[in-house]
């Protein structure tokens, strides 16, 4: 009788162990069922900083005369900018870049002027709207003998957006909500329930021009990658 009881206890123990292993196996199996989704958030924002190189050229055969002409035109340009709302601290003056036609071995020495001075004045401002307004008034300087040069690829307007930290939390939240909505759809289609997050990775934020014609409007974009467990 004692041996019968021992056998019965052993059988029950084996059955219990089998049930435990089965549940553990099924649990592990369920934990292996995941869905990977991406969540996107995009926003259009206005640039909040602009760098505007103002370029003009002065030509002549006498460096002293060119120097005096540059000084006079720079004074005119400074007055124009400040009269239109640009602060003195937002203006940077660079030394003129002098090109000597006679000093160029392979240059065209038949040009009527020996020296060409390229003058660059840079406006760096947070007041993007004001600067863009002034850009539209460049014709006023033509009457004062200053013709801007816009054919040099080295000097181009640069618009940037520096307020990413202010909108980053809301964009991440939106991207995560979009990812969860996509995961919910996958779970519903597979007749499952959406479980907890297995892994989550925030993608890099990117800031780009909305298009070539409006570089002062930026497109901010972020993609999050999330894996959810699926449950029956």
Which features characterize this protein?
single chain; 5 helices; Translation Initiation Factor IF3; alpha+beta; 2 domains; 4-stranded antiparallel beta sheet; elongated; Alpha-Beta Plaits; 232 residues; 5-stranded antiparallel beta sheet
CATH architecture of the largest domain: 2-Layer Sandwich
- The percent range for strand residues is 25-35%
Poorly predicted sequence stretches spanning 5 or more consecutive residues: 19-30
Shape: elongated
Number of strands: 9
How many helix segments? 5
- Identify the CATH class of the largest domain: Alpha Beta
Q: Could you say what the CATH topology of the largest domain is called?
A: Alpha-Beta Plaits
* Radius of gyration, CA atoms, in whole angstroms: 35 Å
Task: Give the terminus-to-terminus CA distance.
Answer: 45 Å
Largest sheet, strands/sense/barrel:
5 strands, antiparallel
Bin the helical content: 25-40%
CATH evolutionary superfamily of the largest domain: Protein of unknown function (DUF541), domain 2
What is the H/E string? HEEHEEEHHEHEEE
In the residues, how many domains can be counted?
2
Q: If you average the pLDDT, what whole number results?
A: 85
Derived from helix and strand composition plus strand pairing, the structural class reads alpha+beta
Write the layout of secondary structure elements.
Blueprint: H1 2-31, E1 34-46, E2 49-60, H2 63-83, E3 91-93, E4 97-100, E5 115-125, H3 128-135, H4 139-142, E6 158-160, H5 164-189, E7 193-202, E8 206-209, E9 217-231
Antiparallel strand pairs: 1-9, 2-5, 2-6, 3-5, 4-5, 7-9, 8-9
């Amino acid at each position: 009788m004692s041996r019968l009881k021992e056998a019965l206890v052993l059988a029950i123990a084996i059955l219990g162990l089998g049930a435990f292993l089965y549940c553990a196996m099924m649990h592990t199996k369920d934990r292996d069922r995941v869905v990977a989704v991406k969540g996107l958030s995009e926003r259009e924002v206005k640039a909040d900083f602009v760098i505007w190189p103002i370029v003009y050229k002065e030509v002549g055969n006498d460096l002293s005369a060119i120097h005096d002409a540059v000084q006079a035109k720079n004074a005119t340009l400074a007055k124009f900018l400040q009269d239109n709302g640009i602060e003195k601290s937002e203006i940077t003056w660079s030394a003129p870049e002098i090109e000597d036609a006679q000093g160029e071995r392979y240059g065209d020495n038949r040009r009527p002027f020996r020296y060409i001075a390229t003058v660059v004045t840079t406006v760096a401002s947070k007041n993007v709207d004001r600067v863009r307004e002034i850009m539209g008034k460049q014709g006023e300087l033509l009457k004062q003998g200053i013709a801007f040069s816009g054919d040099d690829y080295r000097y181009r307007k640069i618009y940037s957006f520096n307020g990413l930290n202010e909108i980053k939390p809301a964009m991440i939240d939106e991207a995560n909500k979009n990812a969860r909505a996509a995961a919910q759809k996958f779970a519903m289609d597979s007749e499952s329930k959406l479980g907890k997050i297995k892994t989550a990775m925030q993608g890099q934020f990117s800031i780009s021009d909305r298009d070539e014609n409006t570089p002062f409007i930026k497109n901010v974009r972020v993609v999050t990658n999330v894996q959810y467990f699926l449950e029956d």
